[in-house]
Queue: 4 jobs
Job 1
Amino acid sequence: SKVQLPRPRNISTNMSMPGGTGDAKDADEEIQAMCTALKDAALQKAQASGWNGTFAEFTAKTYKSQVVAGTNYFVKVNTGGEKHVHVSIFQPLPHTGEPPEVQDIQVDKSAEDALEYF
């Protein structure tokens, strides 16, 4: 017979807890490739939230990651000049064959804005 485990309660994410995001790292080619592939989806999500801007460029600068049933990435992306956005991307585990997808986006960010879980 199966044992029923209690459902986990929502617990606020603390950066020092296992499963937290840890420190920001410089974006590498893999992160940039994921961002490039998701640029249009990120723009659509930003515009669907009422933002009416565009991305002159989409260059990943830094990121944090969180391992779950796949990996959550939180990426600071330069969109031209001093403009930045923060993009939340979920990459499913490789065996699923599913592509990464944009979960959320925060617009009107600066290079100095801290990259946090969202």
Note: Helices lie at 29-48.
Job 2
Amino acid sequence: MALNLSAAYSTGLRHAACSRCCADTDDEGDNSDGDLCVAAIAAARRPRQGSNGLVPVPASSSSSSSSSSCAREIGVSLPDIQFPAAHFVAFRGFRERLHGHNYNVSIRLGSDKLGADGYVVDFGDIKRAARDLCRTLKERTLLPTLSDVLSIKHYQSDNGQEHVQVSCEDGAQYAFPVADCALLPIMHSTAEELSEYFWTQLVSQLGAVLKERGVTWLEVGVHERPGQGASFRRSLLETAVSATASSLAVSANSASSELATTVPWKQPAVKPWVQDSIAVNAKRDGAELAFAKLLSTLGHAEASRIGPKTPARAAKAFLEQTQGLLGPDPVQLVRDGVFKFEGEGQLVAVKDIHFHSLCEHHLLPFSGTAHMAYIPNGKILGLSKFARLVDAYARRPQVQERLTNQIVEALTTLLAPRAVMVSLEARHSCMTIRGVREPNARTRTQLFAGPLKDDPLTRNMLQSSLSHQQSSL
């Protein structure tokens, strides 16, 4: 029967409440106002009623649209389900130069029945999950952590930034910031393995939905360019094995169209720091979405003027300000800088260590200097470790009082000094640029610890060593 589009338009069936084809236009714009909706097309396909009010049904029609003899297939392949990324292609005896692609992702799935709503599955669920996965890989370098020819190591640079070093079989080396990488539990960052990775992630996210809808198979394609790509397809049916023919027949009848609970994917062993790096990327994506939503409160015109890259930059800056939460425990970070010391009666003072932190009440920065003095008791700390310790505790949502406490507690744990004093002085933008707007206000906090903390002479020595007079050096 021919499709009567004019009849469909004349009926006015615009599918006003469809979450599948019309309600998803806010983020992809694939249904303009002039588009004909699924319901209208379906109405146009229906035969016109006869004079008796009945719709004639061909004799060969199935009595049920969910008959197991039917095979239905749907697919999603949209230009915005994509991610630009760089990747390594390396195997024994071969390494391609680092390069990238604008990857496009397509999804196909099948079922032998329709849901009560007439659909195999909601396109919106598939598109949202696929887009979320693409965001985790967008503008990153894809690193296969299970490669047998690439050595991937984690290290911290002198400025405290987390990096990944990639050493190739042929001696080539690369270094990338952790936040710019996507560390994947695969052997090769080829389209073949990326499609399988996407498949497992989609099943992990949508397994319950696919089971409920009776989906029997899923296929994911990853395309490096038009006409060039790979796909991974696997059945989602639960395989039932029985020792007897009768039980096998029962199993076949009862489970022929049932999806197993989420198909298990045996994730290979991944080093803890790789898992941490993946978590960092996920945090950055979440922060980027949050900043985009925050900017949207300014109105569409202003948010558009600011530009689409601002949320990503803001998210990166926010993670830099809070990277102390993502790194190792500060005490463990500097523990290798503790040394034995046999001298007695000395006092060690380290002054003017600059720090930047984030007020946890307003999420506005505060900055200042830290000063520390202690009397050793058999152990000393390498001088650079004081700066690392302060930075690790400062780069997180903080209040100055807690920051002072944490530094004192860390020094006490590491050194068990006879006495220690920490003094912080800072300017808080939550007080200087908002509220009372006092541009010259400064806050000073001091804390003593150790067995001699209450001795007047010791306290006076520590305070004098940290007097805030300008150094002559």
Note: The longest helix spans residues 272-296.
Job 3
Amino acid sequence: RYEKRRQCVSSSGVTTGGRGRRGSMPPFSRCLAEEGMSIRSFKLVRGGSFQEEAVAAMLSKPGTRDVATSEHALPISGTRNLSDNLADLKAQVAANQKGIGLVAELIAEYSLEVVQAYMTHVQNNAEYAVRCMLRNISRVQHLGEVDSVTAEDFMDDGSAIRLRLTIDRRDGTAEFDFTGTSPESYGNCNAPRAVTFSAIIYSLRCLVEDDIPLNQGCLNPISVVLPPNTLLSPSPTAAVVGGNVLTSQRVTDVVLMAFKAAACSQGCMNNLTFGDQSMGYYETIAGGAGAGPGWHGESAVHSHMTNTRITDAEILEKRYPVLLREFSVRRGSGGKGEWAGGDGIVRDIQFLRPLSVGILSERRSLAPLGLAGGGAGARGENYVVRAGGHVQFLGGKNTFMVARNDRIRILAPGGGAYGPPAEK
């Protein structure tokens, strides 16, 4: 009787409630508590009833820091937008219930044994596809039967991400060893272990040419070495908001470079937040994708570890006190080579009332690398343009106040090229 068996259904989402800074994406957070409420375990629905009062109490409670940051650090408030937080959670509960219902329908039609068998078949097929891909890459790169390749890249603050990839062609397995990666950062670009695993499974699925669904079977032939208390395996209280949206992109670039599969993409999500006590807004901005053997990088697209859609200009201007002055392709920002990197984006937003603004971005100091002799993509740039015309450079991470008619101008990075440019 399947009613007594357990099935797991998961969902995820983005919240913009925030603590300390609007939008839950503080550029300078130093500990997890400054980034939002951390809930280790809580029964959200009990006896068919959504536990709204208990959830509201948790979200409204001010946070406390586990580490000393600064004597000038802002207090950690509770959520400023409880109604949106509750709506997000209820939507996820509804999505899970829908998933449970659909799985139950499958079981009712085909039986539990058949459904579980096919779930296993899907994972076994993914495992087989990854093993075949690893064997093929080992041969194409003329590696030994058991051999290693390396790749590394750096965050704008100099933190290193180092990978030694060892492929065993005998059984189609691989070890991803990140030993040598920099220690945990006193900042927010630390990436929890799950983020690195997500980047790896995404990269593996990209490299598999067969049409398979993404699933855990892709990781069955893979082992991962992540030394503790490093950038990719931080302590439980470390700040991580930048790790999910920035470091994850760098990990993906490093993995794909190790496989010699693609040049670096923009390596960033260009996280922009603004708001005040009454509202908050958060968006990610696309850029240039890296090129590969036989294809140019795409321009003005989200790449790799992000799939968010940006708000339509008409909706943005209707719902928020801003005007979108420019949203265009940043021509010429892609790397030059046999296969060119994709161009980035220019996004220019004018504010119609005083607001707090934050930018959390990467690739402002170090350009997205090309591969196989291809040129690097252009670095990103962030500016605030004051109402009187005065321009100030913001760097990659900053938070600041704007007055009426001030603007933020963001130039997203381009992608790296593949192969040297043709001689004239």
Note: The first strand starts at residue 45 and ends at 46.
Job 4
Amino acid sequence: KQWYQRRVRGGLVLALIMLITGSINTISAKFADLQKTFGVDGCRSFDRSFDHPFFQSILMFIGEAGCLIVFHLSLALSKARGREVEEQAEFKPYIFLLPALCDLTATSMLYVGLSLTYASIAQMMRGSVIIFTGLLARVALGQRFQAHNIYGMAIIVIGLAFVGLSQVFKFPGDPDSLTATDPEARQPILGSVLILAAQLVVACQMIVEQKFISQYNVPSLQVVGWEGVWGLTASLLLNLILYFIPNLAFNIDPVIDDFMSSTVLNRTDPACNATAIKAILNHFENPIDGAYQIAHSWKLVVGSVGLILSIAVFNWSGVSVTSYLNATTRMIIDSLRTIVIWVFGLIVGWESKVAGRIGYELAGFVLLITGTFIYKEIVIAPALRRLDEWWLRRSGGGVGGEFLVDSDRLNASGIQAHRAPAQD
């Protein structure tokens, strides 16, 4: 009994760590997006926004690659203590390259989207990964659904619609131009679309892992680490390429307008001229400017370190908590994480406080949680069980669409990655 109590207490501590670090991950990224400081142009009297989503992906993969170090340290510690260690599976590290490229694509899109919309909306939109995973699994792997899977997905779609409409409708209390006066959500509709697209890529990654990697029986933390190594390598290369591509996607005129109208600008400083500022901004991504801004702002240092450490600890605790408790607990924690991010955003002023918009978001959140719990059989009413039995008789005994949802692992973006389970 004492052993069981200690195990439960240990699981609850890990669950709390997972909840805190998972929330910190999204909060740190959004916190960095909202900071302003001078850049590599050298004009110290003009602060610019930290607008470097692709550079943030480098930080994320540093944290994920750190999981490989944690894995080997844990393995060495177990051997030193004389514990029995499971024989390591043989595999070629390059098998993680394709999933890592998917991860990089999804992470980059996610951070661009996060910089354009509210943190809570970004977190809620991540729930769409179940829809994309289920549909791709049906097409690519021939999986069949039970009735509760289909009803759960339908409810999730309705929930996503409510969350999306909260960004489209104009509510009483909104300013005349929401995006022009709200730095926390400059382009919320575009941000939401990018986050949805990122979840489609995440779903593709799950299918790839299910089809090509699950056969190797690699420990989850080791998989995360290797994907981090490949993702970091590819992210560095991507940032180098984007540096030499002109910035055609984002309008830099507002920044130049702010520069020209600044009342604190030291106009006698040779570095403070619009041409120099424009040259720095005219890169699709400028990692040099990003690193320079971080080095000269303690707030950006806090946000960046928080990003790196939170993803590493989040992955470790996520893998551990499932071994102590169960995957259902993981799903509940992920739901609580959305609430924590949302409440934190409301307290610090990162979220819209317009009553109508909050109502739509709350309705969408409740529907997303309900649909997810039904899909995962966490909440199955007797009526749904009878529907499942009828569906199985009708389809000749199909396999449920759950195969990718009870993962013990996380992806680089700090999302509960509903991937194919790897045996630890």
Note: The first strand starts at residue 36 and ends at 37.
